[in-house]
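For reproducibility, we list the full input for the flavin-adenine dinucleotide complex.
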Amino acid sequence: MACSAWGWLPREIPELEIYLPSRMGDLLDYLAGEGRGASIIAGGTDIIPAMRRGALRPRRLVDITGLRELRYVKHDNGIVRIGALTAVSQLVSSVAWLGRRYYCFKAMDIHFGSWSIRNMATVGGNISSGGERDLVQVFHVLEGYARIKSREGERIAPAWRPELREDEIITEVFFKDLGKNSWTWFNKLEMRAANGIGIVTVSLMLRLDDNYVVDEIRIALNRVRGREAGRAHEAERFLTGKRIGYEMLREAMEVMEREISPASDFRASGEFRREASKILTRRAIEAAAKMITGGEA
Ligand SMILES: Cc1cc2nc3c(=O)[nH]c(=O)nc-3n(C[C@H](O)[C@H](O)[C@H](O)COP(=O)(O)OP(=O)(O)OC[C@H]3O[C@@H](n4cnc5c(N)ncnc54)[C@H](O)[C@@H]3O)c2cc1C
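The corresponding predicted structure, in tokenized form, follows.
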């Protein structure tokens, strides 16, 4: 049966072929050859619900969980590297040795799905699903890049917009380690606690100089224009070179208000989203500045 008698109930998934490679070379050959058009499955937390809704009907799945070499978080000559099969829960625990400034990862423990979803959901799957997914926004402020492989070779693309071909796989995400006086933040306003896509999410990277002046700031929102996620570049430009303070943050949020125009949907109006984005961003900047300065800013 392809469809439930009740339109809103999950559908049964039709019979399909599943390929389980244990070597990268075999996987790339399969995707470029007999498995062309097959869908990759990692944690399955996005693709299985999509198949049950009938939004996706692949005839073949490639289960990549046998490629154990893609599960890691490492620090390598000033570069942080995260394997595509790293689970969100593994990313959360890595903060213990990566450093507390990666609070953006720690925050996933509060905001990303449930305990079981965090154990299954992978970094590569989140990036590939794109759009409003939480790690997409986080890697945008970390300026992370995705390493993408196919039988033709390797390419690097922004992790927040990898634009994959059907024969390609993301193998890792990497970014330059943040230096001293930096802090990251992630905040999410959601309808149900930690169980899906946020109404508003704010990701932040803040670096202050020794005089507590903003050296660099990156702000990513899940909705900047319409349904599009992106950076609040005008607010970033306004804040750079200024000392964090009450009045300056108020003005910065006015700049952001003019810059963003999020779309309305059944979860919230665009107007509500704009207001919430300002409040969450302001709180994120204040919290990050406090963490960098030990409460003096
Ligand atoms: C109850 C629930 C709560 C959730 N909560 C959140 C949340 O709070 N925040 C959030 O961001 N998301 C959330 N999600 C969505 C989902 O958990 C994440 O997007 C997750 O990171 C997807 O990873 P996965 O390994 O499960 O991907 P899969 O479902 O296995 O795959 C997702 C997509 O990515 C492709 N893919 C997977 N790995 C690769 C790879 N290495 N290279 C190329 N393509 C690949 C697949 O082909 C598929 O198209 C939730 C989902 C559920 C069911």
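The radius of gyration is 20 Å. Residues 270-293 form the longest helix (24 residues). Both points were considered when choosing residues for closer inspection.
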